[in-house]
């Protein structure tokens, strides 16, 4: 399974500002060469040192690695060469 692109579909904060929440979409190619997409819903503790988009993408990759087929080693997780998933994000 090769990750071709990573997009943050939604990003927001909890009412008290302690958590960042969002949906992260992976555009993938499976072993047969079929294009697929997979969306992970993420909630992370907000940080003053780490950007919100980086927190969400990190959590989404963690979830992706925990998928049974990836975790068992049946499917190998790879990332496309030159993939730069962290996008510039600005508060509204």
Q: Could you explain the architecture of this structure?
A:
It is a single chain. The protein starts with a strand and ends in a 13-residue tail after the last strand. By secondary structure, the chain is α+β, with helices and mostly antiparallel strands. The C terminus is likely disordered. It is built from 2 helices and 4 strands; from the N terminus they run βββααβ. Strands 3-2-1-4 form a 4-stranded mixed sheet, with helices on one face.
Write a brief caption for the model.
This protein has 92 residues and is an alpha+beta fold. The chain contains two helices and four strands, in the order βββααβ.
Q: Give Rg in angstroms.
A: 14 Å
Distance between the termini: 34 Å
In the sheet with the most strands, the strands line up as 3-2-1-4
Arithmetic mean pLDDT? 87
Residues in helix, %? 10-25%
Largest sheet geometry:
4 strands, mixed
Order of helix and strand elements from N to C terminus: EEEHHE
Structural class call reads alpha+beta
| Poorly predicted residue ranges | 88-92
Strand content: 35-45%
DSSP E strands, number: 4
The global form is elongated
Q: How many helical elements? A: 2
